[in-house]
Amino acid sequence: MSRESINREEFARYIEQTLDINRFRDYCPNGLQVEGRPHIRKLVTGVTASLALLEAAADTGADAVLVHHGYFWRGEDPRVVGPKQRRLKLLLTRDINLFAYHLPLDMHAEFGNNAQLAMHLGLVADGRFGENDLGWLGMPSNADVSTVGALALQVEERLGRAPLLIGDPAQPLKRVGWCTGAAQNMLGDAIAAGASVYLSGEVSEPTVHLAREAGVAYLACGHHATERFGVQALGRHLASHFGIEHCFIDIANPV
Question: Which CATH number is 113-226 given?
Answer without folding.
Answer: 3.40.1390.30
